[in-house]
Amino acid sequence: QMADPFLYHTGERSQYGCLGHEVQIEHIKAYVCTPSFFTDKAVIVVHDIFGWLFPDIRYIVDLIAGHGYITICPDFFKGTDPWKTTDHWADFADWMKHHDPMKVDKEADVVLKYLKEQCGAKKIGIVGFSWGGMAVHHLMLKNPQLTAGVSLYGRIIRDSEERYNLLNPTFFIFGEKDHTISYDQITLLEEKLQQYCKVAYEIKVYPGQVHGFAQLKPEDMKPDDKPYIEEARKDMMDWIKMFI
């Protein structure tokens, strides 16, 4: 029996009226939000297991666009079902086999091409949450077109020493009370990055925060968590702004 990795209940969420629009790019649908002025800077947002339609992730897209970036959240599940709150955690490992965060390269390339050719983007960053945080870690090792990355509570996969030779600056955000990622894993990540990583990186752990803390909308935040959520989001944006 696998523990439910989300200590917040995703069913009890306020509605969200999105500011962006949906587009079709080759075989992928995507949610896009653009600032009101021209910019050649863009950010790709990688959703968590709840997919690209989830209101929290669209809120994040709009938030980043508000800082002056063309922001896009593609459907990395390519039209297949995201994980649903009614699904059973016993089936999660099987579901993950068909939704591998290490197999996002083709979709990332399609979106990068769209941002460069259709939107005039010259510098492109990426942020990802949970499942998306794992995808960001993977892409920052594989795709030199991504100028900077922020991985938020992506489980740390240790399949080889190559896992730590990042191509461009990457910031790792974790919650102290995330029971899907142990503190030992974070310590090991830090040690390995010190050893192998030749670019700027940072790891930060936010006190008292559980898995998924950084993507809550203001009305869904608990008062004790709000300062840490806001700090994590500011840190995320500061990292993006430093490099993009």
From TrEMBL:
InterPro entries with a match to the protein in the record: AB_hydrolase_fold, CMBL, Dienelactn_hydro
Subcellular location as annotated: Cytoplasm, Cytosol
Dienelactone hydrolase domain: residues covered: 28-242
Molecular functions (GO terms): hydrolase activity
Family: Belongs to the dienelactone hydrolase family.
Record's GO cellular component terms: cytosol
Chief location category: cytoplasm
SUPFAM superfamilies found in the cross-reference section: alpha/beta-Hydrolases
Name listed for the protein in its UniProt record: Carboxymethylenebutenolidase homolog
